[in-house]
Hints:
By secondary structure, this protein is of the alpha+beta class. The protein has 2 domains: 21-179, FAS1 domain, CATH 2.30.180.10; 185-331, FAS1 domain, CATH 2.30.180. It has helices at 2-22, 30-35, 41-49, 52-58, 69-76, 82-90, 100-103, 116-119, 176-179, 190-196, 200-207, 210-220, 231-243, 246-255, 264-268, 329-338, 361-377, 399-435, and strands at residues 62-66, 93-94, 110-114, 129-134, 140-144, 151-160, 164-169, 224-229, 257-258, 272-274, 287-292, 295-299, 304-314, 317-322. The protein has a 7-stranded mixed sheet. A 7-stranded mixed sheet has the order 9-8-14-13-12-11-10. The relative contact order is 0.09. Residues 13-24, 337-385 and 388-436 have low confidence and may be disordered. One 2-acetamido-2-deoxy-beta-D-glucopyranose binds at residues 110-112, 131, 133, 143.
Amino acid sequence: MAKKMSTVITSSILLFLLLLLAVDTHAHNVTRLLANHPSFSSFNHLLTKTHLADEINRRTTITICAVNNAAMSALTSKGYTISTLKNILSLHVLLDYFGAKKLHQIGGGSALAATLFQATRAAPGTTGFVNITMLRGGKVGFRPDGGDMSSFFVKSIEEVPYNISVIQISRILPSDAASAPTTAPAEMNISGIMSAHGCKVFAETLLSNPGASKTYQESVEGGMTVFCPGDDAMKAFLPKYKNLTAPKKEAFLNFLAVPTYYSMAMLKSNNGPMNTLATDGANKFELTVQNDGEKVTLTTRINSVQIVNTLIDEQPLAIYATDKVLLPKELFKALAVEAPAPAPAPEDGDVADSPKPAKGKAKGKKKKKKKKKKKKKKAAPSPDDSFGESDSPAEGPDGDADDENADEASAVRIVGGAQAGFVVGLFCLFASSWLI
Ligand SMILES: *[C@@H]1O[C@H](CO)[C@@H](O)[C@H](O)[C@H]1NC(C)=O
Ligand SMILES: *[C@@H]1O[C@H](CO)[C@@H](O)[C@H](O)[C@H]1NC(C)=O
Ligand SMILES: *[C@@H]1O[C@H](CO)[C@@H](O)[C@H](O)[C@H]1NC(C)=O
Ligand SMILES: *[C@@H]1O[C@H](CO)[C@@H](O)[C@H](O)[C@H]1NC(C)=O
Ligand SMILES: *[C@@H]1O[C@H](CO)[C@@H](O)[C@H](O)[C@H]1NC(C)=O
């Protein structure tokens, strides 16, 4: 009897633990919360389209001031660009938790709430603050800095204390600052933005390369994210850059931009490899994004760099500064090997084996064959400049970086495995407790 009782208790506890694990531990999903309320579908759709939903899901202690579909038409009928819509809607995301109860108990009769608009660089001065005022008859009004008080609390929609509160307000908050036209993508002065915010050397390097400049400018419209090295890092790197052949210079510049718009929130939830503007069929030119808390790291097989600053985050363009120059393996594996490499033993008198940049595919292939031969012999570091680098593991000095990455990757795998093992283990315990 006692045993049966304890079995029941054990299995209940295990079942509870299993359920806990099964529940999505992600804090909240505003898209899903609002999906329960069809009369807010227009607002919800725009949160997704402007990528504000990602930003909202990443934060806690926030309040979303939503308006219903009828009130949204005042906004959607104006023909605003997506980045202006983003500014306007970000004014409706308060960086504090206001449930219905708190709204009606505001100490001193009014409160000033910072918004997501204020948190971006887009809001001039204090235009990103919203004044919440208690009015006669239990009314609560919302007035953006520099605007009128013409929008009022209607009702609470969803409350997850104290992570996220979604409330309905009667009208879109009127704000000249938020609805000001933003620069059209085609007119964005990429090098100007970089120069003004600590990436002047990279900007000048880009400007002096018409091919890459053109590729950058043409990519903005469809969405682009640039990872430009800060001035000190780029300055130190210039001698190496100048050593590259013309096509490699262009490939290197193109490698530091990705043909997709990534806000910081999106980068932080996007681990994994990304294509760059330098990627084409034969040449991968990938970089890998890795997140660790608030840190975003970019890696290749050669090195890793960290994002240290946001120069602009205005859909469709984001530019981030990095602490070092991210090196594509397609261009710098050879450089990393070159210095300490012993002179390769002449083979069949083929001089093409000297560590000079290989031009053309055929030569690259020939080299690769040779490389294999060498590997068998001695695994000597072999300089390989060819663009169409294969995925064979790197050898020689840069092998260290490779191993590090491999270690990290397997560590992640082990952690993931441990989690799965834990679940399976619990399940087995649970099952066996029934059998006892
Ligand atoms: C609130 O957010 C925290 C941190 O993301 C999360 O751990 C917690 O489960 C959330 N609470 C609720 C009730 O969703
Ligand atoms: C939030 O929910 C929507 C709709 O259910 C889904 O498409 C989206 O992937 C979810 N986002 C996250 C971060 O889970
Ligand atoms: C909010 O605005 C009202 C006037 O509309 C003003 O009296 C009050 O001081 C403001 N509150 C704060 C906290 O700035
Ligand atoms: C871009 O900005 C730079 C530096 O601010 C300036 O010299 C250049 O004229 C600008 N280009 C265009 C097309 O506006
Ligand atoms: C540039 O290339 C030359 C010849 O390959 C080499 O000797 C030199 O060290 C390189 N300079 C840099 C900074 O990489």
